[in-house]
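WARN no homologs supplied; continuing
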Amino acid sequence: MDIGQLSADEIQEIITTARDDSRVNGLTHNFYKYPARMPPSFVRAAIEAFTDSGDWILDPFVGGGTTLVEARALGRSSIGIDNNELAVFVSKVKTTYLSDREQTWIRKLACELASEGNLSSKVERPTKWIRAGYLKNLNSSSVWRIRKIIEIFLERISRIRNPRSQSFLRCAVLQTAQWALDNRRVSPSVAEFRSQFLLNVDEMLDGMAELKSTEECHLRKSSIDTTVETRIFHTLAQDIDKLSLKSKLPTPKLVITSPPYPGVHVLYHRWQIHGRRETPAPYWIAGRQDGHGETRYTFGWRQEEGLPTYFENLEESFRSIQSLLDEKTVIIQMVAFSEPSWQLPRYLDVLEMIGLKEMRLPTKTGDKDGRLWRDVPNRKWYAHVNQDASSGRELILIHKLM
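OK structure emitted
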């Protein structure tokens, strides 16, 4: 559907949900709190407004998989792409269903882990991961107990032969470890960690059941006999137009995504232990590799004068994304800027140069420039200038092919 064909109710729903600052919950969204998440309610409103059953949806910077989860819930097939192995791992777990037998076995094993795992248990240290630096800053007196119980859990989980079950339980440990370690002043006790782990497993299984039920409900209402697919690829957005990948991707009706933000520091690949001490531990827990610095995930160094590397990567990425689109595809982005006064015009110039035309919602949004902005509470990112209040605002941009 074209933007000019939206009803007044659909437009208002997009505006309202874009500014939704409520806590993310429901379905499988809370399996892991990935940075820079879009509000699920906004993604849902956009999918309902711009797509129909049988349409495909693309998120070329998939992050924590919000787009893919909402697409499944609405009975739509989707494609997720990200160059971060952690994002790919989390997105796959969030959108992969487990059989009843697998769920029963997972609950049983989770209880065994929580009851048997104690600090006196002998466990083989993850030497490969330690040597590669993935357990950095986890040896202090305040967190080593949590690190040890994670090692015990992972040693047992690594022996699971069923890949879906192993990934699910790794994600449960990942979620619990994030709760215990990331940006937390005081670490919980081991007993609290065990209890939270069990709670997370139960809530994750309930969320997965809710997602499956919601998807089935939408498919029953649909007049189209279709099977929902979720395809996830670990690659750069710049490489989408390569023939080996492009041949596997159908033309999306909607692209909805949150690309890297110019001049804004987002920790996509690290946790912070008691302040600024960073650790790549989430990759160790997920059993995935990092091997890249911040600039790999943010299009470039945020302190580079004029951000030329950022805008070069932005252009390359959207040229590649554009190769999949047709004149019916709508592109929706949620993006923040450290200095919107010059970065936003430059950003729009890049998109226009490659053949994308900005579309405006046919109504007043309440913002001076006529665009749809949202304030993000408790933003913990850092701009490359001292005046970083701008990075606490996100802009919704809508484009189509010229």
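Confidence is low (pLDDT under 50) at residues 382-388.
OK
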